[in-house]
Amino acid sequence: MKKKIAIFLCAVCLAGLTACGGKEEEQALTVEAITQPEENPQSDNTLNGSEGSEPDSESDSSNAEEAKESTQEKEEELEGNVESISSEGIILSRSFTYEEDDGSGLVMVSGADENGEQVLVTVSFSENTKFELYTVKNSGINGDSDVTKQEASFADIKEGASLKLTGHFTVEEKEYTADYVIIYDFV
């Protein structure tokens, strides 16, 4: 029975890859507001140098807000399989998901991006990272009734395990710090 399920899942993945091979994914559009300082006509006193230049408090506050936004870390989910484990963290082979054209559900393609390249991400953990182990029986066919949840630790992560992480990228798409980790154990 497990062989049939594995063959079926492989066929679904291949069909998804074949169907989406010619499609271009929509690129996320980032709009950034650019503020330009207002040009104030200079008075005769300013030209003579008798009046010192005062910083425009309005532009200073908008610059401070932009700097604050750029330093904030965007929380993202990351899914994949563990390639290797070290004392500092793990190397994760990232999985990608996309929605079916008819909206019927999500399809997960493991181990490669749209170009067929494996994407490896270095994942680190803090002392505040929370770990949970989800033991899934019957391939999760019965939903939550097939899933047993319990607390876990870094020691419960094994090579080849499937993980779902919540955290943030510290180096764009290369290094990731996890705040919450779900370890899937399929039995």
Fraction of helical residues: 10-25%
Radius of gyration: 25 Å
Shape assignment: globular
The structure class reads alpha+beta
- What would the average pLDDT be, to the nearest integer? 72
How many strands? 7
CATH homologous superfamily assignment of the domain at 74-186: Copper binding periplasmic protein CusF
Strand order of the largest sheet: 1-2-4-7-6
Compute the separation of the termini in Å: 13 Å
Spans where pLDDT lies below 50 across 5 or more residues: 22-55, 63-71
If helices are DSSP runs of H or I spanning 4 or more residues, what is the number of helices?
Answer: 3
Order of helices and strands: HHHEEEEEEE
CATH architecture of the domain at 74-186: Beta Barrel
The major pleated sheet works out as: 5 strands, mixed, barrel
Strand content: 35-45%
What is the CATH class name of the domain at 74-186? Mainly Beta
CATH topology call of the domain at 74-186 = OB fold (Dihydrolipoamide Acetyltransferase, E2P)
Structure write-up:
The protein has helices at 2-20, 44-48, 57-71, and strands at 76-85, 89-99, 106-110, 120-136, 147-152, 162-171, 175-186. With 187 residues, the protein is an alpha+beta fold. The protein has a domain at 74-186: Copper binding periplasmic protein CusF (OB fold (Dihydrolipoamide Acetyltransferase, E2P), Beta Barrel), CATH 2.40.50.320. A five-stranded mixed beta barrel has the order 1-2-4-7-6. A hairpin with a 3-residue loop joins strand 1 and strand 2. The longest helix has 19 residues, at 2-20. The model is unreliable at 22-55 and 63-71 (pLDDT under 50).
